[in-house]
Amino acid sequence: MNKYYLIFGRILISLLLLFCSGQHVLAQESIGYQHYVEQYQSEPFYDGEAIEVEFDQGLKVENQGSNTFTITVAESAWYHLNFEYQGNSDTILPFSYKMKIDGVVPFSEASNLVLRTEWTRQGAVQTDRFGNEIVPDVVRVAQNQQAHLVDKTGLFGNNLAVYLTKGSHEIEIESIEGSIELFSVTLETNQTIAVTDKVRNEVEANDISIEIEGENIYQQNAPYIRPVSVFNNRLSPYDNEFKVLNTLDGNSFKNAGDKIEYQFEVPEDGQYFLSLNYEQSAQVDFPVFLEILIDGANYADDLLAYGIPYTSSYDVHTFTNNQGLPIALSLTKGEHRLSFEITREPLQDIIIEIETVISEINQLSQEIELILGGVMDKNRDVDLNEYIDNVPDKLIHWADRLNQVLADVKILANSNAIPGAFSQVELAEDQLRQLASKPRTIANRWNELAKGGASVTSKLAALLQSQLNNGISIDKLWVHQNEVEAKSPSIFTNIVDSVSRFYYSFKKQDYSANTNSENLQVWVNRPRQYIEILQTMADQYFTPETGIKVDFSLMPNQNKLILANSAGKQPDIALGVGYALPFDLAIRDALADLTQFEDYEEVVSKVAPNLLIPGMIGEHSYAIPETMNFYVMFYRKDILEQLGMTIPDTIQEMAEMMPVLKQRGMGIFYPTAALGTSFKIFPWTMPIVYQNGGSFFGESILQSGLAEDKTIEGMRELTNLFTVYSLPVDVPSFYQEFRNGTLPLGISDFGSYILMSNAAPEISNLWDIALIPGYENENQEIERWSSGGAESSIMFEASKQKDNAWEFLKWWHSKDVQLQFGTTLQTYYGQEYMWNTANLEAFAELPWSSQHKETILMQSEWIMEVPRVLGGYMVEREVSRLYTSVVVDGDNLRKSNDLSIKRIDREILKKLEEFGFMRDGEWIKEYQMPADLNIKD
């Protein structure tokens, strides 16, 4: 009988796996460019005259709109499309678009193509108030530009082509972000870059040497590529007291597709070598690849994807051919342009292979999880070969493929050793072989395949992430005939320089605590680059308008404010403080009540009202929200479409999706599952409680919200997600699992949004955000309460310049200033420096995705914050313990809740007596709870 049960079980599981496999096949409908090429690899490339389609009036594509044009070809062949265009929008983001041919996206990369615009630095280099050079502003170049099809990942460089059959074809350009005007589209042959024959491996022994400073870029195709100051006496220019811009910042010139261009003048015809003094520490023991053009042409095949070797310190490198001989270029007298563009094309096959291995391992992990019911029991002996054929062989097969990847990497690195940049691949290979060597233990160790931070897929995903950084810092370039050497200071010079730097470190500290009492003192709890922009903006706009001088100081630790206030050395204003800190300072009478100013309500009217709650005591407000940490629902469009699912509107709809997802080894992320801390903060535990009409506090501080039925019901609904509907309890990285598709839905915050937007280019057009699901109330309205507190601005009561301080706060929190600051931050430092301003009017105009901004602004109407009160930390702690006791330990909710109420009441009474509100259990003075600001009342 047991034998028949086993046979029936194996048949049932096989059918389930077959069903899952079918879903996996369905997921491959949108083929990648590599498979697209394989379909038509026997077809010829067009080799005739270029075919140009001109638009006399210009073909305009508005933001999130589309437009079409028709191309007619006389023969079936491969074609390159070359666009002549000019960006029309004011955004600093590149134009992103989807291209369809005859109504169909030809390959997945065509769902997210980009057209960049050219930028240049304007004006001479200026200095700040400390005598340090500051980066000049960048402006868009107003001229027509040309570009081929370029996908966002950069893996295919400029070589994307399309196969067109003989006849007419309709091409649709659909804007994802930005607007553009097309002037012409040209169909070209495969030879898009001319290779000159002006190359030698020797030059005449002349002494011409043209120096180009790496920081002096003529044009660039991204606004954030910038010069920087480095205190290194091997660089030029150099000053050991003041900051001077002396190198191209490798932290800005690092993304595939980033291009810089230099101008130089050759005094006479001749042959010249090309060298540069650079640092490339982004890829350890592995090169970063550049496409190098002179006057728009390639002077040598070796320069099309040239590997810049790894070096952790600045070093001189002369460009050589594949025989190791210096490349000599024939240049004519006059001006020339030299461009460097970062490319990942040599890594194309390697990256795609790693992504494929990750996908296949995830599929096996899902099959194993399905067999084991998602439970890993070390006391249970399961032979997986009875259910899945050749599991150890599959592991060995993947290990062998990763071993081949390492072999290919060694060839690119021109090394016999495995580059440090790819050490994760070696670790993943070893882990697969170890698992395969003990097949009977695989069922008890299946989490080592695709679950957790130490799994094989996690290691490989971390590698893919690291490969996005291809930064190169350039100090100087030479177009030369004689030998060049890097600046090499003597030992004596180095000693003198070190002593001088040590001396100046005492003499002047930029953005350290200032002591000029005549100026407004503002401490900022943010990185230095934020403060530099703030100081520049204040000096350029605020001070001339008001006559109020402002000194900004770097505040590495916001807890310094408590000590400074105790010592009487507090600033007038502090910016960027955590939203929970103002209460701790205000209850000690350290902060000024901002409601005393007549125009207070006008200033705070631009933020979500409930963001004010944490900074309030009674009807008095002690903080202005500066940023908001919004929560939204992230979802994979491709996976939901394949499964025939829609975005859940309620928590119940979300929970009902779990069985279908679970069958496929997938799940849904809820913030309490974030791994790394056992403490579950209010922003994670509050939403469902408030969506059910509950609250953690009553009208009085001594009235615990946990005693209310609606609060208990909310906690039950929260814990049921994990105990009944089996949402994952511990998720090492939602970002990674969302990327690989094992968690295609999840509720997460601004931090996840930055990662998805900037660190997952391979799924950039496959995901979106929506309002978080909630619960329907008696008015048939879905309540979607979520947290939004981030950083705030505060004014100290001891300030002797309160009126001036208020003028500054009004200026800082105004729409125009917040918008300028957010735009400048992204312009200077890149798209990942997103400013999540709490000013909703400014937020609506930030250079972010227009569709995403609309969703976030809708969700901001449902922002709610838990009041901060004396002893409130115990409420947060006990709610976290209550959640853990039910979800992890399996305790009874009501019994555990009663214990929490007792602990909370005891701690709050203790704090009320400590701060003089009660004595011996009797009230001495009234304690005011924050005013009710519920915007839905």
Mean pLDDT comes to: 88
Instruction: Give the proportion of residues in helices.
Output: 25-40%
Characterize the overall form.
globular
How many DSSP E strands? 41
C-alpha-based Rg, rounded: 31 Å
Spans with pLDDT under 50 lasting ≥5 residues? 1-29
The chain-level structural class is alpha+beta
Strand content: 15-25%
The major β-sheet equals: 6 strands, antiparallel
- Helix run count: 25
Polypeptide structure, described:
There is one protein chain. Helix content is 32%, strand content 21%. It has 25 helices and 41 strands. α9 links the parallel β27 (520-524) and β28 (550-554). α24 packs antiparallel against α25 (893-914). The chain is globular and about 95 Å long.
Secondary-structure map:
Layout: H1 2-26, H2 33-39, E1 51-61, E2 66-73, E3 77-87, E4 95-101, E5 113-115, E6 119-121, E7 126-127, E8 133-134, E9 138-140, E10 145-148, E11 162-164, E12 167-177, E13 180-188, E14 199-200, E15 209-213, E16 219-220, E17 227-228, E18 247-248, E19 259-266, E20 270-280, E21 288-294, E22 306-308, E23 311-318, E24 328-331, E25 334-343, H3 348-372, H4 391-413, H5 423-437, H6 447-450, H7 456-466, E26 473-480, H8 491-507, E27 520-524, H9 528-546, E28 550-554, H10 560-566, E29 573-578, H11 581-586, H12 600-604, E30 616-617, E31 620-621, E32 624-625, E33 631-636, H13 637-643, H14 651-656, H15 658-663, E34 668-669, H16 682-691, H17 709-723, H18 734-740, E35 745-749, H19 750-758, E36 767-770, E37 775-776, E38 782-783, E39 791-795, H20 802-812, H21 815-829, H22 840-843, H23 850-860, H24 872-887, H25 893-914, E40 918-919, E41 922-923
Parallel strand pairs: 27-28, 27-29, 34-35
Antiparallel strand pairs: 1-13, 2-12, 3-10, 3-11, 3-13, 4-5, 4-12, 6-9, 7-8, 14-24, 15-26, 16-19, 17-18, 19-25, 20-23, 20-24, 20-26, 21-22, 21-25, 29-39, 30-31, 32-39, 33-35, 33-36, 37-38, 40-41
Helix pairs in contact: 1-3, 3-4, 3-7, 4-5, 5-7, 16-17, 24-25
